[in-house]
């Protein structure tokens, strides 16, 4: 038993013996124990965090998700993000505990760091390193830009209003970082961890657009020994959950691979997996993209118009193929994440070399540009509740 003894499998876990999952990577695996994590999370008082956020001042409000509101703050000179659990629901309490325990023992450059927490009375708060560029969701699917030049560019180029387009190379770099974070969870953490909440809103971006996975409240210790899955109530976000998991409740490492495939398709297309604001046939990304995914000659039709054609066509094709592989219905034929990392690194080795990059695209090169304006995320319907339960 590794350090996750406190995360004993759920009582309803299916104990049927079956062949081991091919993603075990036992040799490469390393015991993740608190003594190798980069420091223990600090226990804060509610007063500490009230002061840090200016008493949860609206001016410091960053956004709101299923867990509760998030505020920017400062503790001992370090910028932090403070997430306050909305006081309704047992589920939130469980997620709080899992998040603290997971992030206390897990440590990787592509995982967000937990600075500390507060569990005083009824209050439950989480304190993270502050990620200055917010979520991938806000960059990929756009916010209304306050930059007039960018606005003109958007109009002139027929880019859907409100987008701050990420350039191709940045998208690929984000994909590599996300897959590396997932590879750490699947192949290095011992026992392996199933993330279960891969989605654009949970990919947070550093100043150079380096991505970090966040929100481990739904994470599960993966199957160990002869087991191939963990039986659990179906949780996650609509559209990102693997169909086999939704139907059977059997969670495997490959459930994360399906969600990664959805994320890759979102990076390619700039479309949300589900977007109620689009015409009916386009609301579900998989339904809309199916005719293009089935015909290699039509792969280019998947490319986000906001890329303005600025991508290497062969790399686009390769990224579409990786996404297709991850999205296969049968979990056992989906690739393991280590292979996805190799594929994505290969794509990253063929960057788009523009003669002239459109100035208003978001990339590390112009990351200081004023169009990178982030607005608080809206509360999205259907998020994370046990939608299928
Ligand atoms: N560590 C962080 N640094 C900066 N912004 C963050 C951080 N954590 C969360 N946020 C922002 O707070 C908002 C709400 O986050 P969250 O509660 O995780 O909900 P969701 O994942 O559903 O968006 C998001 O816009 C996210 O970008
Ligand atoms: Mg989140």
From TrEMBL:
It is a lipid-anchor. It catalyses: L-threonyl-[protein] + ATP = O-phospho-L-threonyl-[protein] + ADP + H(+); L-seryl-[protein] + ATP = O-phospho-L-seryl-[protein] + ADP + H(+). The keyword Iron-sulfur does not apply. GO terms for molecular function: ATP binding; protein serine/threonine kinase activity. Pfam families: PK_Tyr_Ser-Thr. Its EC number is 2.7.11.1. It is an enzyme of class 2 (transferase). GO terms for cellular component: plasma membrane. Residues 353-389 are annotated as: Disordered. ATP binds at residue 83. Residues 56-353 form the Protein kinase domain. Keywords: ATP-binding, Cell membrane, Kinase, Lipoprotein, Membrane, Nucleotide-binding, Serine/threonine-protein kinase, Transferase. The keyword Membrane applies. It is found in: Cell membrane. SUPFAM superfamilies: Protein kinase-like (PK-like). SMART domains: S_TKc (SM00220). InterPro entries: Kinase-like_dom_sf, Prot_kinase_dom, Protein_kinase_ATP_BS, Ser-Thr/Tyr_kinase_cat_dom, Ser/Thr_kinase_AS. Residues 359-374 have a biased composition (Polar residues). Belongs to the protein kinase superfamily. This is non-specific serine/threonine protein kinase. It comes from Paspalum notatum var. saurae.
């Amino acid at each position: 038993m590794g350090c996750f003894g406190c995360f004993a499998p759920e009582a309803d876990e299916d104990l049927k013996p079956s062949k081991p999952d091919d993603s075990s990577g036992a040799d490469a695996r390393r015991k993740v124990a608190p003594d190798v994590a980069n420091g223990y999370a600090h226990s804060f008082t509610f007063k500490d965090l009230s002061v840090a956020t200016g008493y949860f001042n609206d001016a410091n409000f960053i956004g709101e998700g299923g867990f509760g509101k998030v505020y920017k703050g400062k503790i001992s000179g370090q910028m932090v993000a403070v997430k306050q659990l909305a006081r309704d629901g047992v589920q939130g309490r469980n997620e709080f505990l899992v998040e603290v325990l997971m992030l206390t023992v897990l440590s990787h450059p592509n995982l967000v760091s937990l600075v500390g927490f507060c569990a005083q009375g009824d209050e439950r708060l989480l304190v993270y390193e502050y990620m200055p560029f917010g979520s991938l969701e806000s960059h990929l699917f756009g916010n209304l830009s306050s930059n007039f030049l960018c606005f003109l560019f958007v109009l002139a180029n027929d880019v859907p209003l409100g987008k701050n387009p990420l350039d191709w190379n940045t998208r690929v770099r984000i994909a590599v970082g996300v897959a590396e974070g997932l590879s750490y969870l699947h192949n290095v953490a011992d026992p392996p961890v199933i993330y279960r909440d891969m989605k654009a809103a949970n990919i947070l971006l550093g100043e150079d657009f380096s991505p970090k996975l966040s929100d481990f409240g739904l994470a599960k210790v993966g199957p160990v020994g002869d087991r191939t899955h963990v039986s659990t109530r179906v949780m996650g976000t609509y559209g990102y959950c693997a169909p086999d998991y939704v139907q059977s409740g059997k969670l495997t490492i490959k459930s994360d691979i399906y969600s990664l495939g959805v994320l890759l398709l979102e990076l390619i297309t700039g479309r949300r997996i589900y977007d109620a604001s689009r015409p009916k046939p386009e609301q579900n990304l998989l339904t809309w993209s199916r005719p293009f995914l089935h015909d290699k000659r039509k792969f280019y039709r998947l490319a986000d118009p906001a890329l303005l054609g600025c991508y290497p066509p062969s790399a686009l094709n390769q990224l579409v193929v990786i996404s297709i592989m991850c999205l296969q219905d049968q979990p056992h034929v989906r690739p393991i994440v280590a292979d996805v990392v190799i594929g994505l690194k290969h794509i990253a080795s063929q960057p788009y070399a523009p003669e002239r990059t459109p100035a208003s695209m978001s990339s590390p090169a112009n990351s200081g540009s004023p169009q990178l304006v982030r607005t608080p995320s809206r509360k999205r319907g259907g998020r994370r509740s046990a939608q299928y339960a």
